Design the sequence.
C-alpha cells in the first residue's frame, strides 16, 4: 500500500519533469532584496522582463532576498542545475560567491554588477551613478532653502560614498553655502532605521534628502510626511511616493545592455569584459516633480549634458571634509574606480569610520 | 526474522514517515492556496538534490547543524537549556578570525589546528559566561544564553565595520581574506569542507563522553537530581560550567567552519539561524547522536528545498520555514511533556 | 528649524518605542500566566505582514490594523494549543512559532511588496503644536497606536493587578497547581492571556508596517521581538516599568542616528547591544534572589491537578 503510493508519486514527478519545448536560453538573476521594492532590485527585474519579451525563447529564473553570503553560491549552483547559462549576480556582496561558481562552470556566462577583473566567462558591469549624482546635487543645491541637504546611506561602501561626494559637489557648484549631512543605517533594507534616519535629518533642518539604500520608499514617504523634498534613487518610478516633495531622481536602464549580453550568449560569442556606463547609458534621470521650476530643470539638464560629453567632477584639486587634499590638481578618478572612495568631500558632515 | 523482531525498527520509520507526510500535506495545501504547484516544487527539489552536487550541498548545510545540535544536547544532559548556539557560533567565528589575522604566517598543519582551537575557545568562553552565572545561582542559563545570542553578531559587525575592515577597493564591510593556510580544505570540487569531519568527530566525542565515561554517568546524576549529586561528592558547579563551555565550543567550531570553510572572510550574516535550528534538532533527536545526524540531514533537505522553491516557483526562500514549522508543530503536539 | 538633540532622541524613542511597548505588554501578559513565547518575533512579523497586505488590498489601514490584531491573537492561540492543550515544550514551540512567522509573513507579504498604502492617520492637537520646537519635529504628531500606548500600558497593569481576572492569571503563573486547587481553570486563563497578548503583539507588528515605515519587507522587525522579550525581564514583568524600558531601548536607536546627523559617530553596534547587556546586568543586580518578580511557574508545563 505504502509502496504503491510511492510509485505513484515517482510517476507524478516524472510527468512533471518531462517538459516540452525547452527554452533557448535560461537566465538566472540573484537579488539581494525584493523585486517589487521600487528600487535597485526592481530595476534589474524590469530589465530582464523586457529581455524576455524582446528575445523569444528566453526564460528568466529569479531569486529574491538572497543574502550576500555563501547562500548565494548555492542559489547560483541551483540555477545552473535548472539550466541557466547566463547568471546575473546583481549585488556587490556576491563577488566571492559568483567568482567561485564561475570558476567551476566555464560554460556558464556571468555578468556581475560590481567591480574587479573580467574573465572569459565572467563579465563585470555597472551604471556609474556616482558622476550622475552630480546633476542631482545641482537640483538639490538650487531647491534647498536651509542650505542643508541630507543623505541616507545603507552600507558605507565606496560606491555609496562616491554618490554622496558627487551630490555635495554638484550642489556646491550652484550654491556655495550648501552642506550635506550623512546618516548610515548599517543595512541595505533596515526599514525602521531608515525612517529614524530620515527623521533625524529633518530634525537637523535638512530640507532635501537623497539616499542610497535598496528601496527608497520608506525614506521618501517619511520625508514627504514632514514636508521635505527628496531625490530618488534606484528607480525612476518612485515619484508616486512623494506627490509634493519629489524633485527628481536617478534610475537604471539596463535593458539594452542585458539584451546584447543575452544575444551574445545565445550566439556562443560571449566574452566577459568590464562595462561601465553612466548617464546616457545605464543611468537615467527621472521626471521632475511639480515644484521644480523650468530654470532649475534647465540647469540640471545642462549639468547632465556636460557629463554625457565627458565632464568628470572627480578631477583634482579636491579636498576631503577634514581639509586634506585627496586628489591633487589634474588627477582624476575614473568610472572604473568608483568603489575606491574612502573619504567624504568638503562640506559633508559625516565620518567614514 | 520474525515479525515481532522487526517491529521496533519498522515502527519508528512508519511514525517518521507519517509525520513527514502530514507536514508535507499541510505545506502543499498552503502552497496551493498561494497559487503554486506543490508537485512541481517537489519534482524540482528532488531533481536538484539527486545530483552529486545537490547531495554535496546537503552535507555542507548539515555541517554547522550537527555542531550546534551537539552544543544543545551536551549541556542538556545536566538539565541545562542552551538556547545560545547562535551567539556561540558567531563568537567562534570571531575568535578564529582573530587567530587567522593575528598569528604569524604558519604552515597549514600548524595554522588549521590553531584556528580551530581558537574557534572552539571563542564559543566556549562565550558559553562559560552563562555557565558561571548559573553555577553561582545568579542568572538562569536559558535567559542568559538567549540574551547573549544578540550581542555576539553585534561584536562581529563592530569588528568588520571598524578595526578589521578590509582596506580593499570597495570598502565593503568584511574582514580581509584569511591566509590560505587558515582555510579548511574542501573535497571533490564541491563546497564540502573539513568542518564536516570536525562535526562528525564532535558527534562521536559527544557519544563517547555521555555514554561511555564516568563523567557521562555523573552528568546524568546531576541532570536527575543536582542536590543528591552534590551530596554524593560530584562537583556540580564545575560540571555546569564545563558542560556549557564544551557545548559552546561545539557551536564555536560551527562558526569557525562557516568562516574558514565556506566564506573565507568574516562577514555579517554568517549564520541564518543555525543556532536556533540546532536547538530544534537536538530537541527532536532527544539528544541521541544518531538522531542528531538524521535530523540535521532532514533539516538540510528542507532548507535545500527552500532554495529550489525560490528559484523555480518564485517564492521567497523564507516560505520553506512553514514546512519546518509544520513538522515541528506535529511532533510537538504528538509528544506531550516537558521533556527537553 | 533645528530640533535639540534631547528632543530629537525623545521623538525618535517614542516612534520606535511604540511597537516595542505593545510587544512587551503582550509578552508580559503571556508570561504572567506562566508561559514564555520565544516566537514573539514571528508573531510581530505576521502582524506587520498581514496588516500591510490587508491595507494594500482594501485601501483602509483600520481594516489592516484589525486584521493584524486578529492574526496576533490567532497565532498565540495556535501556540496555546501546543503548550496549554498538548502540553508541548514551550521553548521548542516558541522557536517553531518563530520559523512559522518567518515563513508565513514572507508568503503573505510577497505579492504586496512595494505597494503604496495609506498609513494610519496621525494628528497633533493645536495647543501642543504651539509649544516651542514641537511643530518642526515629530513630537505629538502620532497615530492612534502611539497615542494609546500609555493608556494601554495602564490598562494592562490595572487588569493584571487590580482585577479578579488578573489575580487569577498571576496565580496560574505562580503555581498552576495551587490555582487549580482554588477552583480556577489554568487552561482557560492561560488561553485568555495568550489571546489578549497576541492581539497586542499583532498591533506592535502593524505599527511598524502601517505607520513607521509604510512598507513591508521580509524580516523587517530586525530582532525587535527579542528586544521585547529582554524588555519584559528588564521591566520585571511590570507593564508600567515597560513604558520606561521601551523609551530607553527605542532611544538607543534614535540616539545613534541623531548623533550621526550632528556629525559624530559612535558605533551603532555598541548601542544596539544595550538592551541585552542592560537586561543581563539587571538580572545580575537582582542576584538570583527568589523574590524577583518572575512568575514562579514560568516555562513549566502544568499536567493537571498535581
Sequence:
Amino acid at each position: 500500500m505504502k509502496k504503491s503510493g510511492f510509485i505513484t508519486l515517482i510517476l507524478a514527478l516524472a510527468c512533471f519533469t518531462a517538459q516540452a519545448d525547452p527554452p533557448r536560453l535560461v537566465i538566472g538573476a540573484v537579488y539581494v532584496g525584493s523585486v517589487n521594492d521600487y528600487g535597485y532590485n526592481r530595476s534589474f527585474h524590469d530589465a530582464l522582463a523586457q529581455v524576455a519579451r524582446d528575445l523569444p525563447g528566453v526564460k528568466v529564473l529569479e531569486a529574491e532576498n538572497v543574502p550576500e553570503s555563501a547562500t548565494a553560491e548555492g542559489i547560483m549552483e541551483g540555477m545552473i542545475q535548472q539550466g541557466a547559462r547566463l547568471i546575473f549576480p546583481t549585488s556587490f556582496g556576491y563577488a566571492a560567491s559568483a567568482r567561485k561558481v564561475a570558476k567551476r562552470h566555464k560554460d556558464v556566462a556571468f555578468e556581475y554588477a560590481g567591480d574587479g577583473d573580467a574573465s572569459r566567462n565572467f563579465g563585470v558591469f555597472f551604471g556609474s551613478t556616482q558622476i550622475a549624482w552630480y546633476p542631482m546635487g545641482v537640483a538639490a543645491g538650487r531647491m534647498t532653502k536651509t542650505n542643508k541637504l541630507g543623505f541616507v546611506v545603507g552600507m558605507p561602501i565606496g560606491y555609496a560614498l562616491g554618490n554622496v561626494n558627487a551630490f555635495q559637489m554638484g550642489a556646491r557648484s550652484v550654491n556655495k553655502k550648501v552642506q550635506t549631512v550623512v546618516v548610515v543605517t548599517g543595512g541595505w533594507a533596515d526599514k525602521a532605521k531608515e525612517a529614524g534616519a530620515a527623521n533625524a535629518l529633518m530634525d537637523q533642518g535638512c530640507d532635501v534628502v537623497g539616499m542610497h539604500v535598496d528601496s527608497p520608499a520608506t525614506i521618501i514617504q517619511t520625508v514627504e510626511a514632514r514636508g521635505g523634498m527628496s531625490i530618488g534613487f534606484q528607480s525612476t518610478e518612485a515619484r508616486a511616493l512623494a506627490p509634493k516633495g519629489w524633485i527628481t531622481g536617478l534610475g537604471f536602464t539596463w535593458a539594452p545592455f542585458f539584451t546584447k549580453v543575452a544575444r551574445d550568449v545565445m550566439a556562443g560569442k560571449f566574452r566577459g569584459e568590464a562595462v561601465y556606463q553612466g548617464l546616457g547609458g545605464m543611468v537615467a534621470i527621472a521626471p521632475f516633480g511639480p515644484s521644480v521650476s523650468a530654470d532649475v530643470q534647465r540647469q540640471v539638464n545642462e549639468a547632465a549634458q556636460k557629463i554625457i560629453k565627458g565632464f568628470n567632477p572627480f578631477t583634482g584639486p579636491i579636498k576631503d571634509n577634514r581639509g586634506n587634499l585627496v586628489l591633487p590638481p589634474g588627477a582624476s578618478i575614473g568610472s572604473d574606480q568608483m568603489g575606491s572612495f574612502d573619504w567624504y568631500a568638503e562640506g559633508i558632515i559625516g565620518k567614514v569610520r | 526474522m520474525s515479525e515481532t523482531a522487526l517491529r521496533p525498527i519498522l515502527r519508528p520509520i512508519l511514525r517518521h514517515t507519517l509525520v513527514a507526510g502530514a507536514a508535507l500535506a499541510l505545506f502543499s495545501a498552503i502552497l496551493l492556496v498561494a497559487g503554486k504547484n506543490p508537485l512541481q516544487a517537489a519534482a524540482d527539489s528532488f531533481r536538484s538534490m539527486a545530483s552529486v552536487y545537490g547531495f554535496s550541498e546537503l552535507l555542507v548545510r548539515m555541517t554547522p547543524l550537527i555542531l550546534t545540535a551537539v552544543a544543545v544536547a551536551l549541556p542538556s544532559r545536566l538539565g541545562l537549556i542552551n538556547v545560545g548556539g547562535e551567539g556561540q557560533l558567531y563568537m567562534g567565528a570571531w575568535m578564529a578570525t582573530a587567530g587567522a589575522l593575528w598569528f604569524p604566517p604558519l604552515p597549514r598543519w600548524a595554522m588549521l589546528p590553531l584556528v580551530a582551537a581558537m574557534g572552539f575557545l571563542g564559543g566556549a568562553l562565550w558559553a562559560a559566561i552563562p555557565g558561571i552565572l548559573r553555577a553561582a545561582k545568579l542568572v538562569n542559563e536559558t535567559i542568559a544564553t538567549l540574551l547573549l545570542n544578540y550581542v555576539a553578531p553585534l561584536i562581529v559587525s563592530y569588528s568588520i565595520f571598524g578595526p578589521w575592515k578590509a582596506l580593499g577597493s570597495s570598502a565593503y564591510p568584511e574582514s580581509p581574506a584569511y591566509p590560505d593556510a587558515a582555510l579548511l580544505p574542501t573535497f571533490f570540487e564541491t563546497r564540502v569542507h573539513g568542518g564536516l569531519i570536525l562535526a562528525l568527530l564532535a558527534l562521536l566525542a559527544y557519544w563517547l563522553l555521555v555514554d561511555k565515561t564516568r563523567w557521562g554517568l555523573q552528568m546524568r546524576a546531576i541532570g536527575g537530581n543536582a542536590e543528591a549529586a552534590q551530596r554524593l561528592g560530584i562537583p556540580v558547579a564545575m560540571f555546569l560550567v564545563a558542560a556549557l563551555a564544551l557545548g559552546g565550543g561545539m557551536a564555536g567550531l560551527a562558526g569557525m567552519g562557516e568562516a574558514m570553510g565556506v566564506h573565507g572572510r568574516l562577514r555579517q550574516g554568517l549564520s541564518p539561524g543555525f543556532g536556533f535550528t540546532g536547538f530544534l534538532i537536538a530537541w527532536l533527536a532527544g539528544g541521541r547522536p544518531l538522531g542528531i545526524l538524521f535530523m540535521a540531514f532532514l533539516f538540510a533537505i528542507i532548507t535545500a528545498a527552500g532554495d529550489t522553491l525560490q528559484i523555480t516557483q518564485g517564492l521567497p526562500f523564507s516560505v520553506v520555514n512553514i514546512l519546518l514549522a509544520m513538522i515541528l508543530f506535529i511532533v510537538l503536539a504528538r509528544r506531550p511533556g516537558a521533556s527537553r | 528649524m533645528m530640533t535639540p538633540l534631547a528632543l530629537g532622541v525623545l521623538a525618535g524613542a517614542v516612534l520606535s518605542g511604540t511597537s516595542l511597548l505593545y510587544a512587551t505588554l503582550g509578552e508580559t501578559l503571556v508570561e504572567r500566566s506562566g508561559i514564555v513565547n520565544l516566537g514573539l518575533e514571528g508573531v510581530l512579523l505576521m502582524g506587520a505582514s498581514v496588516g500591510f497586505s490587508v491595507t494594500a488590498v482594501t485601501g483602509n489601514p483600520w481594516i489592516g490594523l484589525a486584521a493584524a490584531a486578529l492574526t496576533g491573537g490567532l497565532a498565540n492561540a495556535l501556540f496555546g494549543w501546543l503548550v496549554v492543550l498538548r502540553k508541548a515544550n514551550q521553548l521548542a514551540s516558541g522557536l517553531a512559532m518563530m520559523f512559522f512567522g518567518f515563513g508565513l509573513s514572507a508568503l503573505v507579504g510577497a505579492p504586496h511588496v512595494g505597494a503604496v498604502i495609506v498609513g494610519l492617520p496621525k494628528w497633533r492637537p493645536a495647543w501642543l503644536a504651539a509649544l516651542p520646537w514641537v511643530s518642526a519635529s515629530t513630537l505629538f504628531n502620532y497615530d492612534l497606536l502611539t497615542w494609546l500606548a500609555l493608556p494601554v500600558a495602564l490598562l494592562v497593569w490595572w487588569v493584571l493587578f487590580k482585577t479578579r481576572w488578573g489575580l487569577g492569571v498571576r496565580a496560574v503563573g505562580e503555581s498552576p497547581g495551587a490555582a487549580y486547587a482554588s477552583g480556577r481553570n489554568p487552561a482557560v486563563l492561560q488561553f485568555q492571556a495568550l489571546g489578549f497578548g497576541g492581539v497586542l503583539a499583532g498591533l506592535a507588528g502593524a505599527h511598524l508596517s502601517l505607520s513607521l515605515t509604510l512598507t513591508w519587507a521580509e524580516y523587517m522587525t530586525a530582532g525587535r521581538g527579542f528586544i521585547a522579550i529582554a524588555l519584559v525581564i528588564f521591566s520585571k514583568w511590570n507593564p508600567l516599568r515597560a513604558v520606561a524600558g521601551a523609551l530607553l531601548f527605542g532611544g538607543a536607536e534614535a540616539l545613534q542616528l541623531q548623533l550621526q546627523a550632528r556629525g559624530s559617530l559612535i558605533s551603532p553596534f555598541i548601542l544596539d547591544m544595550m538592551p541585552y547587556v542592560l537586561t543581563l546586568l539587571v538580572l545580575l543586580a537582582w542576584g538570583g534572589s527568589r523574590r524577583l518578580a518572575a512568575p514562579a511557574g514560568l516555562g513549566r508545563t502544568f499536567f493537571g491537578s498535581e
